[in-house]
Amino acid sequence: MLMPQVHQSLYPSKTSLILPKPRIYSHSHASSLVPSRSSFTKTKRNGRVGYKTSNNVKAIATEFPVQLTKLKANVTVKRNDGSKRKRSDRTSGTLRLELVFADLDPREERSLTGIIIYERASQAGQADDDVLYEAEVEVPRDYGEVGAVFVTNEQSEEMFIKEIVLDGSPHHGRVLLTCQAWVGFQQKRLFFTNKSTYLPDKTPSGLRRLRQDELVNLRGNCQGERKKGDRIYDYDVYNDLGDPDSPSDLRPVLGGKKLPYPRRCRTGRPRSKEEPSMETRSKYIYVPQDEEFSITKQKSFHERKGLEIVHSLLPALQTGSDAEAKFPYFTAIDVLFNEGINLPSAQPERTGSWMQKALEVVRKAKDGLRFETPQVMKRDRFCWFSDEEFARQTLAGVNPSSIQLVTEWPLRSKLDPEIYGAPKSAITDEMIEEEIKGFMTVDEAVKQKKLFILDYHDLLLPFVRQVRELGSATLYGSRTLFFLTPQGTLRPLAIELTRPQMDGNPQWKKVFRPTWKSTDVWLWRLAKANVLAHDSCYHQLITHWLRTHCATEPYVIAANRQLSAMHPIYRLLHPHFRYTMEINAEARNSLINAGGTIESTFSTGKYSMELSSVIYDKQWRFDHQGLPRDLISRGMAIEDPSSPHGLKLAVEDYPYANDGLELWAIIKKWVSDYVNHYYPEASLIESDSELLAWWEEVRTVGHGDKKDEPWWPELKTPQDLIEIITTIVWVASGHHAAVNFGQYAYAGYFPNRPTITRLKMPNEDPKDEDWKLFLEKPVEILLETFPSQLQAATVMVALSVLSEHSPDEEYLGEKIQPVWAEDPVIRSYFEIFHGSLVKLEGIIDGKNADENFVNRHGAGVMPYELLKPFSKPGITGQGVPYSISI
Ligand SMILES: [Fe+2]
What we know:
plastid; fatty acid metabolism; iron; EC 1.13.11.-; five-stranded antiparallel β-sheet
């Protein structure tokens, strides 16, 4: 509402007042000169909507006394490093600011937008990495509160606007706008003030139209190719992973009935003429402007990526051009960490100019020659060999959410026996009872919840024939059984590997067990290597990529299309979406694309992404993404009101679940406080058109291939909203941190977690000479089974990039978001949130130091720190960022 007039006259004119140009304001009694909404021309260009003021407005006059006050506007711009963002040589040195007042002038009936006043801000100084712009704006005192500011960039370069501060309002004090956004050359951007947090129905009259128009702009028109600097959020299927120009790099489209998948951001690149279902490839992948990395993040990401080529070349430099060369002996692996690389004295003739250039880089970059020693290797160089560590990592490693309770016995495949062979598992009661002799029978073990399984049997078996035909890897369906010992640890009992009937051979399946017979010991080690490769594939493709990065992108797109930047839920979720779209675009560019890192270094090869689609279809459901339901669905917990967090765990010392449930509860408390503050009544949910549209779009478009599933939560009450938001926040923060930032620590030393096995088991239809070689040189067979030198080095580099916190990382609950700080109630809730997270750090440290927690404490055992909330930059193996940013 308009503020009452205050009898303090700065310019007590009673007739006309001529203000110096270019200051303009609208007022009902100066209608001919008013740049109200009606005098703004709406323009459309490249699907973007903008506004421009009339050029003929020189000054403004009023016919009654006007009391003016001065607002000082300070704009902080991050100094550009100038690397890639310069668009033009023109410079004007100013930013144009248009202040939009929150309320309509009741005397202006035709007005649709709050009163607008403009002024140009000029550069006024520099501080550290920031450039400061200032303007002084004279405003009638009765105009009320500024609700938004348009910024037009009149500079020659794209600018990163950090914040705008308006000082001097007699009624509203300091007004802050946290922008944190790029504004392109001649681009006009709208920013709402930090105070402007409103449900749609409660939007001040002067901002309503802007709120609606901004959402229309962000949705775009689904036409044309998106260019850098656009801010359009729209959907597409994954039809850009293959290369339509290369027959060997064609890949199926993910998304649709045949291969269901979440949607990604539409780039609008042209379809291929040869393969119309596929988008043409491009090195540049569009993401909306606000989703791009900051300069700091870009620098950190690309610096580390820059080492990629150097490191990837190291094995080739040592072994010549043989990309398939294995490590000749185990100590050769250690050379990567201990001594670095011995460069050839002369450049080999076969190297092309790119190789020679890289050689020069290698020679100069002395620090870049050596990989950091992974934590797992630092703690216990031989841990990868031990069965207890193999089992422990299913509870506290980088993939702690695959282990599940055995609830049915005997184990049976659900696949078609006509295609895949006999469904009954080869693991018998006798085998298990031999292993757990003296404890109990199998039936008792199942009833007492003592048997656990890593089950990659039915998921991988359908891909075995295809993968083996590629010739670069082997694959099996696998089951690994564990027994929960009285000490609270898991002990591996048996591994079953299955090959379906193929190439005229019948189904092959064998069970491997820990043993004291030397031949079987080596077969057991090789079987473990195969299971670890399966676990690595599942971890990277499902636990990490599909469940966090990929599944979250539709939430981001839908939020930007349907929730105004003023919406309280947008403001709650916004930090959880930081950088996700750009890191996903990077992944499509070089990680999950045809011939990319995943395909060339993981067992599932070119079928990797297709596998992730099959598993999305079979397994992914939104209501199981929150930690409690995830644990229950795997049989790892049951509801129990008398237990902490209402859940009784099947394995009490389960570090991921123990710390995760603490974090889940902290997040849920914060989300509950926040949601209940803005939605004190259920009816407010049902009347919130933006919120309902957002959820509808997530379910029916972003995850539209699953829109008819009965398990989607309803959104009718604040409790529904709390559960939905807590799930999304958990996935983006806790879940992602747990499966992302330990990747280098656990898999950087690849014998601990190989990503691929290249040789079939020696006892699978063996030829005499192969079996003889295995008996004579089992270590060589293991090294040949492991990734090649090139594959291992490529994975090590990729994992080191993915495990690193950027210097500008934002950790969950570490610092309050400026928009949250505007409301004292929300601020107080945040302080509780922050305090709980600080406390959690201590709880986790305490558990890691407690010898009773044997799955995270002990000789050579890595403490479980992946859910410790805060961290320094770098590869630390701890720290929970708000968002999926790497
Ligand atoms: Fe990640």
